[in-house]
Amino acid sequence: GRVRVGQGPHPQPTLPPHIFRGHPRPSVTGALCSRRSGRAEKDQMSTLKDALPRDESELGRNRAMHGDKSYYYAHNEGWEVPKDAIVRAGPGVITGGRPVKLGPDGQPEAPPAGSQDGADGGVHDEVVARLRSRVDTLESEVAKTRAGWTMLAQFSFSDEGGKCKVYVEAGDLEQREASEEGDQSFGEAAITVTFSKRSCVLRVVSVRPDGSLGTRRAATFMCETEVVPDKCTYKVDRTKGRVTITLKKADELKKWKGVTTQKM
User: Fold this and answer.
1) Closest of 259, 245, 239 to residue 188, by C-alpha
2) Which has the closest alpha carbon to 219: 168, 180, 160, 156?
3) Model-wide pTM > 0.90
């Protein structure tokens, strides 16, 4: 015979009586739910597939076709911030780096004194290091340049109302050499003059007859008042070894007592 399990208007299916001998009576409803759950889990797991190789995916095809102009440019591997890039940092600006601790008001907390663990601590250190390196290089170049120049110390001054003249003794501006075979070689010094509103820089570089550079001399003259740079002139007398500088005053009524030189 068969045993009816459960009562009510909708009785559950009957099962053979030997199933319950020595075993707890199972719930048919629980068994059915368990079967459905197992099938759903199996169906869900069956949708997981291995990732496609990069060259077979849309990302890979797009990058191969467009290179660094690809729509997926943000997925490039090995990208680094260029060394000459200027990184802007500040409140609300994300530049990467370490996480930043926020305070109760939602604002970044200040790092402890002496710490560089702030949002832009690493960037700050890198920028400072680059600036120091650049300053050291410039200082070295300036020192080398100054070491090769001697100062033009002999000059005289004349105030002539609306303009002033400075007469600079530049020494030998012409060089002449004779060879044992009787050949004659000549060389002339190169002269440059730079006029600014409050200064004038004179540079004299002698050139040997063989084309090599000789002595380098210079002087920086400081004006008492402003001048008009585009109306200032100079004249070179190579025979006397003199350079005459004419400075046009911006205020022609102002009388000058003289000009001073600045150390190189």
Assistant:
1) 239
2) 168
3) no
